[in-house]
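During the no-cost extension, the postdoctoral fellow (Dr. R.K.) reprocessed legacy sequence entries with the updated structure-token encoder. One reprocessed record is reproduced below for audit purposes.
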Amino acid sequence: MGAFTDQAPFAVRFGWGPDDLAALAPGGDVVVIVDVLRFTTAVSVAVSRGAHVLPHRWRDQAAARFAAERGALLGGRREDPDAPWSLSPTDLAAIPPGTRLVLPSPNGATLSAAALELGVSRLLAGCLRNAAAVGRAAAAALAGGGHLVVIASGERWPDVYGDPHRGPLRPAVEDLLGAGAVIARTVRAAGLARDRLSAEARAAMAAFLAAEPDLHADLRASASGRELLALGWDDDIAAAAALDVDQAVPVLTDGAFTASD
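Re-encoded structure tokens follow.
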């Protein structure tokens, strides 16, 4: 199967979650992780304000020690009054420049950690907010003969024990749209012909172009969006739906996502 699933004939490739990351990342010069609600949106907001975000696996008991060893704060849950910061992009709009923040998440941060273990040399955090900026960075790599791999994080079904973060992958429409936005902006910046994109990448781009006129409505109507609405966090959905408003490119450097203009 490997010869068919690695999308090797194409300059721009797209897949879902850890299995596609493992299949596609070895052939990519630039890998973009997309987790619109909310990890990569949070990263985009934070690094645009001069912070440094260290991804960490979800519910890893070593997270507090990891943060202390790196002189960083540990992000918590938005509803926790004692947590200085969380995955909320709305709250992170006020993060001070220079802050080092360890931000665990079950999907985007966990995939970022997995990408490091796979030896990905250039890892970016993409979302709707920074699609144009990330697209320009990806286009520059493609101009040099490189390849782009865009991985939508997706969500998880509950496992047999009811844990909502450890079951099978659940494709999430918001990540499809975010990945499609990054691909569309890359195509525009690089002037790529259609045949340079895998069918999977073309499908993601088409989904984004169809939804582009009202992204906030589509994100609110998604399963993940309705979960956030139930918590009263429409502000986070609105922040995630803002298209092309962040100009910094979050690049993983020395274990932290840092802004690269």
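Residues 74 and 102 are 5 Å apart (CA to CA). The mean pLDDT is 94. The remaining legacy entries will be reprocessed before the final report is submitted.
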